[in-house]
Give the backbone structure.
Amino acid sequence: MKRLFFITCCLLTFVSIKAQWGFGIKGGIASTTQRLDDHWNSKSKLGLLAGGLITYGLGENIDLQGELYYANRGHKTDIWLGLDASQSSDWYFTYHYLCLPVMLKYFPVKEGFYVAAGPHLGYLLDYKNDIKNWPSNEPREKIDWESECNRIDFGLSASLGAILNNGIFIDARYNLGLTDAIKDRKSKNRGFELSVGYLF
């Protein structure tokens, strides 16, 4: 009888702990730009994101969520390939980040819709810049652009989302960068993310 009671207590404890934790995956798209306080005309560019997440229930309506995912961010601007303004093209600046946001999620009702906010930290994995329609017979000046970038990107995130009964969720997020992406230059990342995922 004591053994049965002990096993029952262990099972109840395991179920309780398991109910507090959740794991998931997500993927989506991002529309990002940079706030540049100089003469550059920064436009938004599209990128992809994908990764995983873990949640912990702090209360009946509050979860703490940590994420680790890859995000393709950056911006684009116009560049003129000749004397004629009609020969302008897009100059793409692409940042490949490993992102670690920590979000506090609040559910106005016990299940379903939620609002979330928290800090995010990004680590720069790689950086590229490409000019669309650059003439193949004209060499480009070699510049060590990546050494001009800051490795760490810090900011704040806020999102709205919904979780369905089957574990599928959708999340719409805005990221507000607080640190400069490029050294010695005001260049803060901004952008929206739309992702879908699944909670196990």
Remarks:
- Helices lie at 2-20.
- Strands lie at 21-36, 45-57, 62-80, 88-106, 113-131, 152-163, 168-180, 187-199.
- Residues 4-18 have pLDDT under 50 and may be disordered.
- The longest strand covers residues 62-80.
